[in-house]
Design brief:
With about 350 residues, this protein is α/β, with parallel strands linked by helices. Helices cover about 40% and strands about 15% of the residues. The structure holds flavin mononucleotide.
Length: about 350
């Protein structure tokens, strides 16, 4: 396949980006994708700064090439939580804690960041590619670029893509509504920003001169070929890599990914307080009855941390956050390197076939 501008900027041989997935990506996953010629990405949003440094060193032991480290831009208000709302949410969670013998419902605490310190480590370690979710602070973009990094961020609307271009990012990730995980929406209403990949990618491609990578619902060579036809310079896949043995998700979560159909994937705020796409389960259905009492991100995620840890311990998929996109029905267990190669080879075969 001819190299696109995005591939040249990223220094990759295949038009495949394994999505950063906080809590799911590992140096082994990132290294395997990089070794195959794609771009491996580590979701470092919830990783402490010094641990991020250790992850970077572990990735560098597995690849001498390009790789991506990803952070959440703190677009949330650092307001202390209203004690009455916290107490109301604790009361809702208490019976679930009792059922799973998870102990007391904790008070919300810090979960992500601190962003400035995380960023400092990425700069000190001269990470080749940095991607952001929830916007792109122009100051950070400029410093990273001066240090030689390629900077990317997610857009869920044309307006966000234009804002990211103005902020100076090198590559825009067009995240369609099908995408698993948190919506990258940072400007405007999140429900109005649920635009499908097929509609979003060409509109962003036409609106900006910055290279675009497509994300959301891409699971195989057909999907990769489709987004390349829409003008994307590469495809970013998250859900497809959840079926790989190199990630760090629990066996219960991986089993759910391998058996779920598209109808089970839904966008919800109940796990974290921010809209994110995941698999419906008992926790989601229960908390959906209390939408008005949900705490803002990241407090809702944090107050749920003990129940989540206990559900992981018990391998209880009824209470786990299981981010996954609408393509989940196509997930197949496969090693990450083999998946990366197959995606690129099958995309090429599809394009050749269409060319006749
Ligand atoms: C389990 C999971 C965790 C994710 N975590 C992050 C993250 O930490 N940072 C980020 O930029 N995107 C994250 N995403 C979103 C991906 O970058 C990407 O937009 C999405 O996976 C693409 O859609 P797909 O899942 O249909 O392939 C996550 C997605 C999943 C499935």
């Amino acid at each position: 396949m001819k190299k696109t501008r995005a591939m040249e900027l990223l220094g990759i041989e295949l038009p495949i980006v394994q999505a950063p997935m906080a809590g799911a990506t590992t140096p082994a996953l990132v290294g395997a994708v990089c070794a195959a010629g794609g771009l491996g990405s580590f979701g470092a949003a919830a990783t402490a700064p010094e641990r991020i440094r250790a992850v970077i060193h572990a990735v560098r032991q597995r690849t001498t090439g390009s790789f991506n480290m990803n952070l959440f831009v703190p677009d949330w208000e650092p307001v202390p939580d209203d004690p009455a709302r916290v107490a109301a949410m604790q009361a809702i969670l208490a019976p679930l804690h009792a059922e799973l013998e998870a102990g007391e419902v904790p008070a919300p605490g810090a979960l992500f960041g601190p962003f400035d310190k995380q960023l400092e480590v990425l700069m000190e370690e001269q990470v080749p590619v940095v991607s952001f979710h929830f916007g792109a602070p122009p100051g950070a973009v400029a410093v990273l670029k001066r240090g030689g990094a390629v900077v990317m961020s997610s857009a869920t609307t044309v307006a966000e893509a234009v804002a990211l271009e103005e902020a100076g990012v090198d590559i825009i990730i067009a995240q369609g509504a099908e995408a698993g995980g948190h919506r990258g929406t940072f400007a405007g209403d999140w429900q109005q920003s649920l635009i499908g990949t097929l509609a979003l990618v060409p509109q962003i491609v036409d609106a900006v001169s910055t290279p675009v990578i497509a994300a959301g619902g891409i699971m195989d060579g057909r999907g990769v070929a489709a987004v390349m036809a829409l003008g994307a310079g590469a495809a970013q896949l998250g859900t497809a890599y959840l079926a790989c043995p190199e990630n760090s998700i629990s066996p219960a979560y991986r089993a759910a990914v391998l058996t779920a159909n598209a109808e089970r994937s839904t966008v919800t705020k109940v796990f974290s307080g921010k809209p994110a796409r995941g698999l419906r389960n008992r926790y989601l259905d229960t908390l959906s009855q209390h939408e008005d009492t949900l705490l803002p991100f990241p407090s809702q995620y944090s107050i749920y941390r003990r129940l989540r840890a206990r559900a992981t311990e018990l391998e209880d998929s009824d209470f786990l956050p299981m981010w996954a996109g609408q393509g989940v029905g196509l997930a197949k267990e496969e090693a990450a390197g083999a998946l990366t190669n197959r995606l690129a080879a099958d995309a090429q075969a599809v394009l050749d076939k269409l060319r006749g």
